[in-house]
């Protein structure tokens, strides 16, 4: 039996790959600095127990292949052992390409925003249409018991991440995914630790579009100028999707009520489907349109895709309701880019116009921690009624690079929205738990676990009832 070892196994994509390889019948092991939710529970359910801490002794002679995650680099003792012993090693996207994508019709869902939800929507729509696809999602779709499926057909839906592949390959992951259909909803400057500027990011997306074969399809967000502009690099048919007039796939008659969004799908000016989506927010209308258009590109009629979308339950940590106590609802969201923060808060405002909205934000990701987004975050968070900013997670940045949480709070307050910076989760729980009132909605935004603030806040609210 082939033995595969994954360095950095607890990352979302790496954990998913580990489970896929095990399902294929390979012997799978791996390590990480520490285990963290939700992927620690996911790995446990797959019967995979990570080795905690990096140690050269973990790299044993019976390993046939090593997969190196992009969160590890030179100096890691296991990486150094692999290099010194000239072992066979690959990046995660290379492993996915060679083990699961080659020879299949790969649908790559990319873009700065919405790709996890769109990938999940498309996978569910295809499953409900009995297309039996494989898929890999960078999150936990609530319609499935795992973030992947190997599938029985030649279709494979994969979330196309623009982040780099590994320390030895700084090109975007999605360039390895052999796209037959490429979906790009939006392109904004992101991942400032990887890309020097927007031009560098544009180049990665142009290269993705340039890989789609002549008999494939490219689907571009009509509501995003950068995404629309990628059509010039195409060598195959291109269609657009969005709410903008002139989009090939367009949502019209959009209305929201009781946590559901309804709209009509037009294709080339003709009504082709009615969507009744159990989610809110303009961004989810665009996500659903993208899923419908992509399903059509591989032969699924729009009305069948719409039927699947009507039972889509969302993705964990994408505006996920964690509970309510003392009349206060608490939500968890992965938002860590200014645009995602703004759209998330706008969606909450739409569904609950009367209640106060609290934005509790942890600057944690490589994007969220950087000063280049300081002004944009101030404008995005000011959509809320109350703002609490936690400590900046990354300490390795210089003062000139690092976002200033106190300054961010001051800028938001200057815009007329009460805001404060608090140095600990204990302080955040205490302040929000004391000041939140019946009818308020608290949206916690971080790409990490944020010290378990969601449940701690619910417990604090319940104790004070």
- Helix coverage percent of residues? 25-40%
Number of discrete helical segments: 14
Count structural domains. Answer: 3
| Overall number of strands | 23
- Spans of at least 5 consecutive residues whose pLDDT stays below 50 are none
CATH top level label of the largest domain: Alpha Beta
Please identify the oligomeric state. Answer: single chain
SS class: alpha/beta
> In whole angstroms, how far apart are the ends?
57 Å
Under the CATH scheme, which architecture of the largest domain would be assigned? 3-Layer(aba) Sandwich
Determine the CATH superfamily of the largest domain.
Mur-like, catalytic domain
Report on the architecture of this protein.
This protein folds into three domains: 3-87, 3-Layer(aba) Sandwich (Rossmann fold); 94-309, Mur-like, catalytic domain (UDP-N-acetylmuramoyl-L-alanine:D-glutamate ligase), CATH 3.40.1190.10; 320-463, Mur ligase, C-terminal domain (Protein-Tyrosine Phosphatase, Chain A, Alpha-Beta Complex), CATH 3.90.190.20. The chain is 31% helix and 24% strand. Helix 1 runs parallel beside helix 4 and helix 8 (282-297) packs across helix 9 (302-309). The protein is globular. It is of the alpha/beta class and 465 residues long. It has helices at 12-23, 39-45, 77-84, 92-101, 115-128, 198-210, 225-228, 282-297, 302-309, 338-351, 374-381, 405-414, 425-435, 453-463, and strands spanning 3-7, 27-32, 51-52, 65-68, 89-91, 105-110, 134-136, 148-149, 155-159, 164-166, 169-172, 179-184, 217-221, 238-242, 249-257, 260-267, 270-277, 320-325, 328-333, 357-361, 386-389, 419-421, 441-445. The longest helix is centred in the middle third of the chain and has 16 residues, at 282-297. Helix 6 links the parallel strand 12 and strand 13.
